[in-house]
Amino acid sequence: MKIFTEITPLKAYLRDMKCQGKSVGLVPTMGALHEGHLALFRKSIAANDVTVGSIFVNPIQFNNPGDLQHYPRTLDKDTQLLESVGCDVLFAPDVPEMYPENTSITFDFGALERTMEGRFRPGHFSGVAVVVSKLFNIVEPDNAYFGQKDWQQFAIIRKLTQQLNFSIQLHSVETLRAPDGLALSSRNARLNEEQREYATVFYRALTAARTWLKNGETMASIRTKVQQMIDQEPDVRLEYFELADSQNLNELQDVKQSDRPILCIAGYVGEVRLIDNLFID
Q1: Residue 63 has what pLDDT?
Q2: pLDDT digit string (tens) for 236-258?
Q3: Which of 4, 53, 98, 196 has a 20 to 30 A CA-CA distance from 203?
């Protein structure tokens, strides 16, 4: 696996690969890799001649300075994992390489970013869009791979790709879960053993809500039940629970209002913020 920390040599290498007619897949990450990330890499490796993995903890997408400070950084372990699955290229820049000066560019995705995550993390998706735009311009991939767990982020990046005319095929890969249903996440490493058990309530709430919806219960009733489930777990608090249209993220009160509705949830276990989602179909 080739490792680059600077943009110019990476672009030169990829230019050579493309001149040879090779397809390129990109898996953007912030590191602290787990099996969920590796599933993205396996998808890319199976479909592309060259797979580029990026590891960069993007400071401008964090609203909480403490969250940025405590975000796990495990570059040596991540490098070994990428080598083990057959990743071709690792791009691991530092902050000055990606942001040689303070960026003044911002994005506004309208209603798409004002709901759910956007309500509680203002400016977050602008920061995501800036770094993803940079990575798309640096790597110029044919395909890019993202996890379904961050569905709102995927919807934002899909809009970004459409509006800026990036010639990139986007792929959302199904969320990988532990046997107890907890969505794999880099943030899980910050949970102690008891908190790890409490955190399963988010997936249990989603699966129960899906069943209740299919049985014809109202969202008002389901919201109450979900809140009660959360309240039964120590050290857990709910931030939001929504039924939304998976395309435009408009909040719904009935599954019949969308061709493919999705349930989305976010909350805290201790000081660790977790998100998850589940399609109704």
Answers
A1: 85
A2: 999 999 999 999 999 999 999 99
A3: 53
Q: The domain 2-173 belongs to what CATH superfamily?
A: HUPs (3.40.50.620)
Q: Does this chain's domain 2-173 share its CATH topology with 186-279?
A: no
Q: What is the residue-averaged pLDDT of the chain?
A: 96
Query: Of these residues, 37, 70, 124, 171, which one is catalytic?
Result: 37
In CATH terms, is domain 186-279 a member of 3.40.50.2300? no
The DSSP code sequence of the chain is -EEE-SHHHHHHHHHHHHHTT--EEEEEE-S---HHHHHHHHHHHHH-SEEEEEE---GGG-S-HHHHHHS---HHHHHHHHHHHT--EEE---HHHH-SS--------GGGGTSTHHHHSTTHHHHHHHHHHHHHHHH--SEEEEEGGGHHHHHHHHHHHHHTT---EEEEEPPPB-TTSPBP-GGGGGS-HHHHHHTTHHHHHHHHHHHHHHTT--HHHHHHHHHHHHHTSTTEEEEEEEEEETTT--B-SSGGG-SSEEEEEEEEETTEEEEEEEE--
